[in-house]
Specification:
Layout (H helix, E strand, L loop, with lengths): L8 H10 L3 H17 L15 H19 L4 H18 L1 H5 L1 H15 L10 H25 L1
Helix pairs in contact: 2-3, 2-6, 3-4, 4-6
């Protein structure tokens, strides 16, 4: 057995999520799923445009696939995100106005998040931790100033 303590599933998932554009890929995959679900709406609502609706099923399927690829292959996120935003905009014409705007907006937002993600960022520090660090640094500098006056 190893000497290091076992980390929980939540901590392992958090570490995995931090190494990839998680929210961008998730939003793009959800957008594809949402648009596919709107294809099943009643005939009074559905507006199929294209070759018997084939493009209406193809584009959201590819969006969901690209979202999963962003999650599991983040090295190619730039290509996947550019393709994802183009497919999202294409659903405007082919799939009920982009899943009644919801899927379109989710897809564009997710693609933009994936495109803008930077892999080598330092983890963010919460506001509470930053304040504690600033207070601790301020207390150290005040303590150092006080001891200088005693030695002179």
């Amino acid at each position: 057995m190893s000497d290091r303590p076992r980390e929980g599933a939540r901590a392992a998932f958090r570490g995995w999520r931090a190494r990839r554009p998680f929210w961008g890929g998730l939003l793009l995959a959800l957008a594809g799923g949402e648009i596919l679900l709107t294809e099943k709406a009643s005939l009074k609502v559905v507006m199929h445009i294209g070759m018997q609706g084939a493009a209406g099923y193809l584009l959201p399927t590819l969006m969901a696939l690209l979202g999963l690829l962003i999650l599991f292959n983040p090295a190619q996120r730039l290509f996947y995100s550019i393709t994802g935003v183009l497919l999202s905009l294409g659903t405007w014409v082919t799939s009920n106005l982009g899943g009644f705007f919801i899927g379109l907006l989710l897809g564009v937002t997710g693609s933009c998040l994936a495109f803008g993600w930077l892999p080598d960022q330092e983890p963010r520090i919460s506001r509470r931790k930053r304040r504690k660090q600033e207070k601790a640094a301020g207390a150290r500098t005040e303590g150092a100033e006080g001891t200088e006056g005693l030695t002179a």
